[in-house]
Amino acid sequence: MPTQPSLWLQDFSQVAPSQRRLARYALQLLRSMPQLKGRLGRPRRSHPFAQQVDMVEHLLALLAPLLDQQVLATRFPELSRAIVLSADAAEGWQQDQDDELDLERIGKAFDHVLREATTTLLKRLRREDGEATASASVAVLSQGLGLGASETTLLDYIEQYSGSESLR
Q1: Same domain as 152, residue 97
Q2: pTM of the model
Q3: What is the pLDDT, as a whole number, of residue 102?
Q4: Which terminal Cβ of the chain has fewer Cβ within 10 Å, N or C?
């Protein structure tokens, strides 16, 4: 049986630095809290996908830029469609998504995506993301205030946190 192509991009450098950093934080969060993985495949049916305040939607939004959209559309079309609908909703498009999405299938597909998010993937992302701040303004502020590496990392996280609804 031939191996299936990876769901993850081969080159993360094509992803915007801020998106790459947010995805890195999401993967680190999942790695540090294994109890989250058990509830990811069980989206709540009582709310539309775009309106769920649930880990699945938010983590999917954070990880989507690192996924190879063509491979995802081939292997998991429901999950690919959910990403598109979620992005549309974030841009203000309102749709009745309950009729369009099979939330159980999306949850199972997302579980599969997360199983492919190995430690090796996180190391590669860390290496490609680097240690520099994702924002030039944080770098200038950090240098101007004479902040150390830990303080700069924290400030960078706070900037990413405040600018990303999915991370919050």
Answers
A1: no
A2: 0.72
A3: 65
A4: N
Per the structure, the complete domain to which residue 96 belongs is given by 16-130
Q: What share of the chain is helix, strand, coil (3-state, %, to 5)?
A: 65, 0, 35
The tokens describing 141, both together, are 């502020």
Within a domain: 4? no
Alpha-carbon torsion angle 59, 139, 17, 89, nearest 10: 50
Q: Enumerate the H helices of 17-118 as residue ranges.
A: 17-32, 37-40, 55-63, 69-75, 77-90, 103-115
Taking Cα atoms as reference points, which of 17, 23, 11 lies closest to residue 139? 17
- 37-79 per-position pLDDT tens digit: 555 544 444 444 444 336 667 788 888 999 999 988 898 888 8
Question: What's the half-sphere exposure (Cβ side, CA atoms, 13 Å) at 137?
Answer: 5
Q: Name which residue leads in pLDDT, 118 or 148.
A: 148
What is the total count of domains within the chain?
2
